[in-house]
Amino acid sequence: MLIIDFELRGDFITLDRLLKATGLADSGGEAKAMVAAGKVQVDGQDELRKTCKVRAGQVVAVHGTRVRICAAREPAGA
């Protein structure tokens, strides 16, 4: 199983944008179709909302890949 650590740049990312940003979907349309088809889970539960907000600490699973959502790291010296 492939595990991807995804670092947020804000408070959240929508599920469809996450799938596209990680390369799990080639386009936003494909990402939305994957979610609508019930192929995506968030924290172990099927997720059918294409634009659900995914936040740090959550895990998204699709096609044998898990994406761990991480909070943005503080810049050095901040």
TrEMBL record:
**Single GO MF descriptor:** RNA binding
* Alphabetized UniProt keyword annotations: RNA-binding
InterPro entries, A to Z: S4_RNA-bd_sf (IPR036986)
Gene3D superfamilies membership: RNA-binding S4 domain
Quote the protein name from its UniProt record: Ribosome-associated protein
Q: What species was this sequence derived from?
A: Caldimonas brevitalea
